[in-house]
Amino acid sequence: MNMHAANAIGISAWKTILGISVASIGWNDAISLLNRMLVERRFTKVSFLNAHNANVASIDAAFADALENFLILPDGVGVDMAAKILYGSPFPANLNGTDFIPGFLQAVSKPLTVGLLGATRRNAEGAATKLAAIAPQHNYIVIHDGYFSPQEEPGVVETIRALRPDILLVAMGVPRQELWIARNLTEKHCTLPIAVGALLDFLSGAVPRAPGWMRRMRLEWLFRLIVEPGRLWRRYIVGNPLFLARVLRQKLVGGGQSR
């Protein structure tokens, strides 16, 4: 998000990680900020930066360009390590979408319409059921799974426009979900489109979360690697050291000035 837009919505503290500006904001302040965007019906695209996303953005110019127009929140131990290296302190809170989005929905008392787009139909419906149990004040509508064809896409976009949910959770994986939001959605479609990765899979129970003690120790990435080694080994075994190497290069060229 460019600084003019950031100042307009009241964010003054940022940390730039591999060229991506990430809001340096606490949990409660993030909830208040997104709630204000809803009240004002201020169209704001939201995503999260973790080590994997940052690596993808480093080699995918279209993805990096798209993120310029998103409000980016910090996700995970990797970006906290980067913030310590570059700025001397971590982010005020870990705002990973898997925990933050359910927490945000619980915290907002005004009834909202929340659209779900992505994952498999079964997982999306399971996620809607879970969200309805933990934040029952809102109305959850599964719009489509994440496997629609190019021919089906205009109909999906029109369905969103006709519904115009307050929040649209888009779960298509990185970078497809952010690029899809950037290409297809405007204030006519929703207020807060949020790129949520595997959130619907986690909420449905199809993909297990790490035990609480591993999450507290910030080792959920290790649990995910153990559960899905064939899919995730490259992201973590190769990607994490590569991310830190890129951060150190940013440090060496003087890229750690606070904003």
Number of helices: 13
Mean pLDDT: 93
Number of extended strands: 8
Question: What's the Cα radius of gyration?
Answer: 18 Å
Distance between the termini: 13 Å
> Structural class, please?
alpha/beta
Give a quick account of the main beta sheet: strands, pairing sense, barrel closure.
4 strands, parallel
> How much of the sequence is in beta strands?
15-25%
Main-sheet strand order equals: 6-5-7-8
H and E string: HEEHEHHEHHEHEHEHEHHHH
Shape: globular
General description of the model:
A hairpin with a 2-residue loop joins strand 1 and strand 2 (20-23). 39% of the residues are buried. By secondary structure, the protein is an alpha/beta fold. The protein has one domain (3-252). Helix content is 52%, strand content 15%. It has 13 helices and eight strands. The strands form three sheets. It has a four-stranded parallel sheet, sandwiched between helices. Strands 1-2 form a two-stranded antiparallel ribbon. It has a two-stranded parallel sheet with strand order 3-4.
Please outline what is shown here.
With 259 residues, the chain is α/β, with parallel strands linked by helices. It is globular and about 50 Å long. The protein is built from 13 helices and eight strands.
